[in-house]
Structure formats: C-alpha cells, structure tokens
Amino acid sequence: MPIDPTAVGAEGGPVRRSWTSKDALLYAVGVGAGCDELAFTTENTRDLPQRVLPTFAVIIGGGGVPMNRIGSFNPALMVHGEQGIELFGPIPPDGEIESRGRVKAIWDKGNAAVLEFESTAVDVRTGQPLLKTSSSLFCRGEGGFGGERGPSDKLEFPDRPADHTVTYATRVDQALTYRLSGDRNPLHSDPAFAAMGGFAKPILHGLCTWGFTGRALLHTLCGSDPARFHAMRSRFSKPVIPGDTLTISMWVTGDSALFRTANQHGDIVIDQGHFRFLP
C-alpha cells in the first residue's frame, strides 16, 4: 500500500524503553566524547557523578510512533530529513520511560513524501514528562498523491561571523562504535553495501554527526550542564565520512542560537539548526 495521508493524527503507544549507565556511556563515546568529558564517559571518577549527554534522547526516545498506519515506502529511497529533541530535565544515567507517538504530518513534495512524527516520553520512576522527540523522513518516489506541499520556511542566518565555533575530528572507525547504540544499518559499516547506495565507503550515521553537534552546543552554550540544554532541532543536508572533521558554528541571541555544522571542505552537513538553552 502506498503512503496513506489519512494517517495524520494517528497515535500509538504506550511503549516502554529502559537503559543503563553503560548504554549512556557507550553513546557518549560513540559521539566522540573522551578523556576531557569524564562526567559523560565514566561512572566512577572521584567527585564526578555520571551525567548523560542530552542528545542521548534520540536513542531512548521516539517510541510509540504508529509506523504501521502510514502505508509503505522503499527504505532504500528514504533519508532522515530533520531531527529535534526537547528536554524537560536531565536524563538520568539509568531509567525507564513510557512513550506515546503520533503522525504529525504527511506532505506531498511531488517526487517525494515527507513524513513527520513526534513522540513524548514520561519518566516511569517519577511520572513526569522527561523528553520529546520529533523527526521527519524524506521518502523519494512516494509523492504525487495530491496532498499539500507543506511549509517551506527557512531560518535566516546572520550576515556576520559566528559567535562561537567548535571543531571536532571524527575517527575513521567512529561508525563502528556508534552503531553499538542501536543502528546496525550496514550502510555505515559494510563497504559493499555502501557501494550499492552510491557511496565510495560507509558513511557516518546522521545522528552521530548530530551528537557531535549537540556536544558542541552543550559545552559552549550550557557550560557543560545538561540541565540547561532545552531544545535542539536541525536538518540533515549532506553525508559525513568517518574521519571527517566537523566544525559547528553558532550565532547566539539571548537564550537561543542558530547553528550549522560543516566538514573540512566547507560543505554544510547539518543546516537550519535552532537551539534553546536555559540561563
């Protein structure tokens, strides 16, 4: 069955997901955190309790989305379009959440369909909302069903140098670590599979690049305090190859910032970024 636009508004869940201290540590290493970020990469450093990178929300969140209601599409022609998270408090090193999701929108781009989802998670231990995730999928070849094209608004970046820039180098084996957090797609590890997708070598997970970007925002604008990290959203614009260098640029206005991430060639790999943080 093709994409079903009447699925907009469909709800799913509840779905429970638990995690451990080890899961949070593995994720941190997977998105490049190291010996200078021991609060996020160790659980037994003296006088330094373990903390969790806010972007770990993309690993544990997103549950309950009723994918069975939207029809079918070719996963080989699907790319991750946008990702967002909103946090209502720091993620604990171990815990359990209950998530409910919904189909937020389905847009007809003519040669493609864009599917938008959101999911809200409650901390089972406290009964309080912990996080919300949102995402969009760009499904090539699935448009033309007569639906609305959807919004085309773009963020306008200031015509001046960024207020802050942070540069991180990814490892050539970065994807092999990140995949252990759950995404075992061979596109990120198997050269033969990557070649079938038109890539000279396996590419880095988009959400791994997103995690590197989130680390830069956390350390630069939140003083490394996850309690100040409120919301992050952006668009994926170009694949990253493991071993690439990433530069995150930020333009700050009050308690928000625009951001984008570029590789060593100056190609924008994450664009249309908007970040909100607490004073």
Task: Give an account of the 3D structure.
This protein has 279 residues and is α+β, with helices and mostly antiparallel strands. It has 2 domains: 5-140, Roll (Thiol Ester Dehydrase, Chain A); 164-277, Thiol Ester Dehydrase, Chain A. 16% of the residues lie in helices and 35% in strands. It has 6 helices and 10 strands. It has helices spanning 21-30, 38-41, 57-60, 174-178, 191-196, 206-221, and strands at 11-19, 78-87, 95-108, 112-123, 129-140, 164-169, 229-236, 245-253, 256-262, 268-277. A 10-stranded antiparallel beta sheet has the order 1-3-4-5-2-7-10-9-8-6.
Oligomer class: single chain
Can you tell me the CATH topology of the largest domain? Answer: Thiol Ester Dehydrase, Chain A
Unreliable stretches, pLDDT < 50, 5 or more residues?
A: none
CATH H-level name of the largest domain... which superfamily?
Hotdog Thioesterase
